[in-house]
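Weekly puzzle thread! Below is a chain. First person to post its structure in token form gets bragging rights.
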Amino acid sequence: MGLVARALEQDGVATTLTSWNGGVTRLMMPPRATITRLARGSTLGRPGDPVQQRRVLEATLALLAQEAPLELLQLDERMES
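Winning reply:
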């Protein structure tokens, strides 16, 4: 997804993404991204936890207000309760 995001940015479309795999995401160098410590398949938050999901989504979307490229934003979101 990072490569797609970079291509879209070159065409003037602002992008952002969130990932649970910071290592791979860093290699793809997306223009804007948040990284969580959540599990694969739960990138936006624990199932049934709309409060956490909203925090992750709002932090990710807030990056769109900033000029790219940005350093990846590490969020302190985890699977534990």
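Puzzle host: Confirmed. Bonus trivia for everyone else. The beta strands are 17-19, 33-37, 73-78.
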